[in-house]
């Protein structure tokens, strides 16, 4: 059995035991596949992790960079208390259109505001508007701009804000220091910016599962 299949089998085993059956979220993934999009959404177990993390810190305001088909957004929305909100940023209109359908399908449209256009621009508008800081931020947009996004994200944070960045391992490709792959270069530069960063403490967890071998970086804004 190839390693990937093994990881996938273990994820399915854990999902079957730990996660309630969730036809709505299955439909969201079904709609993503039917639209011909690649399987880039977080796994169900990772989605549940994000939701439980948001609940654990009592997140009321959540920012997501990179909506894609809205799968992680639905998980995050489900973590919200009354009056809470997820703002999710998506550059591709086709993805935003599909996500809006998925939010309606999942009954969470009222909890989510999708902002179309480049994350860089949407965040600059929020920074200039002086919006209330976010409690939890999930970075999952283009990896090339992670080094830029982290600076913007920090301007939208407060002490105690938790930031999760997806895809910081990529089957170990993150070890490639040749500079040839712009996404790898982006993630490496991002991680180097976190070294001795005055504003955040950081860690990362490698993950294996139905999404292959990857990892989340986690940052917490210091007091
Ligand atoms: C890719 C992007 C993602 O955010 C992800 O979770 C998996 C893959 C990609 O660009 O290939
Ligand atoms: Mg991702």
General description of the model:
This protein has 223 residues and is an alpha/beta fold. It has one domain (4-221): 3-Layer(aba) Sandwich (Rossmann fold). Helix content is 43%, strand content 20%. The protein is built from eight helices and seven strands. It has a seven-stranded mixed β-sheet with strand order 3-2-1-4-5-7-6, sandwiched between helices. Helix 3 runs parallel beside helix 4 (71-77), helix 6 packs parallel to helix 7 (146-155) and helix 7 (146-155) crosses helix 8. The chain is globular, with a radius of gyration of 17 Å. The model has no long low-confidence stretch (mean pLDDT 97). Bound molecules: 3,4-dihydroxybenzoic acid (DHB) and magnesium ion. 3,4-dihydroxybenzoic acid (DHB) is lined by residues 40, 140, 166-167.
> What structural class do the secondary elements suggest?
alpha/beta
What is the CATH superfamily label?
A: Vaccinia Virus protein VP39
CATH architecture descriptor text: 3-Layer(aba) Sandwich
The main sheet comes to: 7 strands, mixed
> Could you tell me the number of beta strands?
7
Report the end-to-end length measured between terminal Cα atoms.
48 Å
Radius of gyration using CA atoms only: 17 Å
- The number of domains: 1
Report the helical percentage.
Answer: 40-55%
Task: Give a summary of the structure in a few sentences.
The protein is an alpha/beta fold and 223 residues long. The chain has one domain (4-221): 3-Layer(aba) Sandwich (Rossmann fold), CATH 3.40.50.150.
